[in-house]
Each structure stands twice: as C-alpha cells, then as structure tokens.
Amino acid sequence: MSTALKDLAPRDRVIVAFDCGMEEALALADALQGKATWVKVGMTLYYAAGPEVIYEMKRRGFKVFLDLKFHDIPAQVRGAAKAAVENGADMVTAHTVGGADMMRAVAEGAAEAAGDFGLDAPVTLGITVLTSMDAAALAATGVVRPLPEQVLELAGQARAAGLSGVVASPKEARALREKLGPDAYIVTPGVRPKGAALNDQKRVATPREAIENGASHIVVGRPITKADDPVAAFEAIVASLE
C-alpha cells in the first residue's frame, strides 16, 4: 500500500454503512460523530432522503461514500458522478461491467466537479462482483470465467479506465493488492466480526482479515448499526485493527 494508505489510522479505514431511513441515519450519525471518519450512503438512504443526507453527514464532519453503483451510458454516468461530487460525495462507485468508456466517464465527471469547486479529488471505485454473489450465482448470469479471475479482470479494466480503485470481497483483496499495487483503493464489504450474522453476504472475512489481506477500507453496516450499542460495536472493530 502507498504511504498515504498504509499509514491510515484504524478508525479511518472503517466505513459505517447507513442502509436505513433518514431519521435512523441522523441518530446514528449523531452517536458516531467525532468517532467514525467515513459513512456510506447507499441506495436505500439516498433514494429516501436525496442529496440532503449528504449535506447532513458533511455538516457533522463525516466523509461520505456515496454508493449508488452508476451503470448507464457514458453521458449519464458522467453527469451523475459530477452531480454527486458537487453535492459533497468524497467517494463514488460504478459497475465495472458497464465498460471502459463508462468508467472513464465516471472519472472525468468526478474530476470536473472537483476542479470546478476547488475540491480534493474524489475517490472513484469500480464494483467488481457483488459480495452477495458466489460462483454459482455468477455462472447463472452467463459468466464462465471463475469468480476470482472475473474480479481481477474487471479490476484491471477499472485501473486502465482511470478509477482510483475497486470494490470487492475481502476474499479477493490479497490478489487485488498484488495486481493493482500500493496506491489503489480496495474497499471491501462482506466484513463481519466473528460470530456476527452473515445476512445476505456470502464472501466474507473478519475486519482484521480484510485489512491484512490488503484492503484499504472496510465497509461494515448491520454489525454496527443494528447493535444494541453502535458506538461500542464500532470501537470494538477499530480495536481489532490496532
């Protein structure tokens, strides 16, 4: 990992996923304010609350991972990425299966917004294979390449298109780090502390395993947000990385 990524503090590596409604998200944000660095705003929350949720998270001092997984023609995703960054997103995602032109459009739209507003360059990530999918689910879509090979192939395409990194399961993080090098963002959902319910995740690892495998950041939702004490759950994960 690059010096910048390698030297991240443990709490700066944990992205708390707010996959809920606005009221619950704001309560969680108030509880985690000053403790967590990153929050993830996904489809459930964004489609319920709109850009306002980004403003509210930024107002509380969080970096925002806006995980809307853009997948459309290049002109549409360029505009979407530009709007997302203009609204305050620090990290955005697009499906790598949308192709090289589409991924380049994401990078271009995000960079244009950053330049227009004098913002730091946003992190642009390519979704490889969803962590809810296993080999059988991938094969059912008609992809005959073995799942790990599919992840690596799509990651290479994302890098060539100018994205900052990828989203993949922690199971592929080590191979991705070797392929993409020290400067790539490798963000891994499918992270579960020992004993936590897997829910709809299939390719999983513990927080420490994910980081040791090469992930730069981990995404953790329900093990924190649905815990009796979300702050204690967050701090326990941070402690496991120290």
Q: Any chance you could write out the topology, listing elements then pairs?
A:
Elements (H helix, E strand, L loop, with lengths): L2 H4 L3 H4 E5 L3 H11 L5 E5 H7 L2 H8 L3 E8 L3 H13 L4 E5 L4 H18 L5 E5 L7 H6 L6 H14 L4 E3 L5 H8 L4 E4 L18 H7 L3 E4 L1 H4 L4 H12 L1
Parallel strand pairs: 1-2, 1-8, 2-3, 3-4, 4-5, 5-6, 6-7, 7-8
Helix pairs in contact: 6-7, 9-10, 10-11
Describe it.
The protein has about 240 residues and is α/β, with parallel strands linked by helices. It has 13 helices and eight strands.
Tell me the helix content: 40-55%
| Uncertain residue segments | none
Give the rounded overall mean pLDDT. 94
The gross shape turns out to be globular
Number of helices: 13
Order of helices and strands: HHEHEHHEHEHEHHEHEHEHH
Report the end-to-end length measured between terminal Cα atoms: 17 Å
Walk across the major sheet and give the strand order: 1-2-3-4-5-6-7-8
Number of strands: 8
In terms of DSSP E residues, the strand content is 15-25%
Structural class: alpha/beta
- The Rg value, from CA coordinates, equals 17 Å
Kindly summarize this structure in a few lines.
The chain has 13 helices and eight strands. The chain has 242 residues and is α/β, with parallel strands linked by helices. The protein has an eight-stranded parallel β-barrel with strand order 1-2-3-4-5-6-7-8, surrounded by nine helices.
